[in-house]
Amino acid sequence: MKSARSSVFLPVLALALSGVGACASIPGMSGVQVNREEAARGGKTFGEGVADAATAPLDDLNLRREAVPEVLISARRAPYGTEGLRRCSAVIAQIDHLDEALGPDVDQPQPAAGTGETAANAALDVVRDTATDFIPLRSWVRRLSGAAAHDREVQAAIRAGLVRRGFLKGVAHQRRCTRAEG
């Protein structure tokens, strides 16, 4: 018996790849025109992410693990540590390393996603959901395989990195550090 997601998968995939009418498959976006550049970006986003989305069950079975960047592991050990922060350049460098691992902070401009990328991300969500739907008792499989525990560790490292970045920005602000000095 086909699930509702698998019966939607092929049409969404076709729309995302063609770019023609891609936004009609996204609620609230019907009637939005997608230009060729947006369609190309959406196709590229989908192409880069489809293998990862299709192999999402490997994460659930704990056969593939997301690597935690060293800067986040260090942040988890000492989120408020001041060792090695004598110079503004060291503070700015640590903030930059955390930005690389975590993405832009709330005070930085967020990259805008176009309609083609939005459609591609929606299609990737369908692929990921369809692939993981095939695992019976998925939550138990994740617990027993250790994948759920690993995900909690990754999330804890991300939270520590966010705290560390905020702390370092406070230190930089208090010392009046600027990027020109760093």
The counted number of beta strands is 0
Q: What do the pLDDT scores average to?
A: 73
Report the major sheet: none
Query: Cα-atom Rg, whole angstroms?
Result: 21 Å
Number of helices: 8
Which class best fits the helix and strand makeup?
Answer: mainly alpha
**In whole angstroms, how far apart are the ends?**
60 Å
Strand content bin? under 5%
- The total number of structural domains is 1
Which spans of ≥5 residues are poorly predicted at pLDDT below 50? 1-28
Q: Order of SSEs, N→C?
A: HHHHHHHH
The rough form would be described as flat
Please give the share of residues in helix: 55-70%
Write the layout of secondary structure elements.
Elements lengths: L3 H15 L17 H19 L1 H5 L9 H8 L10 H15 L12 H19 L4 H8 L1 H29 L7
Describe this structure in words.
With 182 residues, the protein is an all-alpha fold. The protein has one domain (4-175). It has helices at 4-18, 36-54, 56-60, 70-77, 88-102, 115-133, 138-145, 147-175. α1 (4-18) runs antiparallel to α6 (115-133), α2 runs parallel beside α6 and α4 crosses α8 (147-175). The longest helix is centred in the C-terminal third of the chain and has 29 residues, at 147-175. It is flat and about 55 Å long.
